[in-house]
Structure prediction request, 150 residues.
Amino acid sequence: MTQVIYVLNGPNLNLLGQREPGIYGATSLEGIEAMCLSKASELGVSIEFLQSNHEGELVDWVQEAGRRAAGIIFNPAAYSHTSVALQDAVRAVALPVVEVHLSNIHKRESFRHHSFISPVAIGVICGLGAFGYVAALEALSNHLNEAAKA
Ligand code: CA2
Prediction:
């Protein structure tokens, strides 16, 4: 059966492409979804691409992924830096998670340097813009294929 990968996006990422292109790039979230769909078809996986401005809804989707998906690509946006609830959700589902940030959070304000998700992710990609999502999809698919062989 085709593997499903959840691509979850946190608060304000629906504004991508409309504001702050100097930090987050000019690609809209719909554009990023299109890039992910194209990569997913190349890799032979299917994706569920979602965005929410609400922490609880993101928790619900992580739990749903635990029942339906093989892994998660997660840009929790500002909740990366604040949310114990999202860390607990990721820990509870025990799925491989690749954390993605469009910007290089380590080059920015110090409050962005810590992520609650990084310690429970298999890897983190930041600073590569929209391409980071495509790289994350390839990395997660490779991780799943390697895990299936072991
Ligand atoms: O670089 C990233 O992907 C971030 O996760 C984006 C978050 C930020 O809080 C993280 O520190 C790093 C912010 C997303 C807000 O997106 C906007 C897009 C356009 C205009 C304004 C905000």
